[in-house]
Amino acid sequence: MEKKIKYEMEFPIQVSPSLLYQYISTPSGLSEWYADNVNARDEHFSFIWAESEEKAKLLSKKSPERIKFRWMEDEGEDYYFELRIQVDEITKDVSLIVVDYAEDDEVDEGKMLWENMVANLKQVLGST
Predict the structure, then answer these.
(1) Global pTM exceeds 0.90
(2) 5-125 falls under which CATH superfamily?
């Protein structure tokens, strides 16, 4: 299996960090923008889209800063995806940092997918 490449993206979002955290860390929040439906039992999350379902394990979370998942298909690998809230100490600007992995020929596609997902999130939040 080809080794995946880590990439990181930053999205400025005009919203309070605590509200943003609710949308990235709870099944109901994630269902608003990331997947059609999200179910969770303990540290196991099911992300459901129209045609598919993917399972992920919650690796860690720290309120109101970050949440990290590993897709079950990547079990035994070091791959994960992380959603992290960053607040600039001086300007108080809020950004969502996305860390993910993709195979070399799928990085651009992965980035485009995250751009679309975060655009959905901004729309739900009423942010620009």
Answers:
(1) yes
(2) START domain (3.30.530.20)
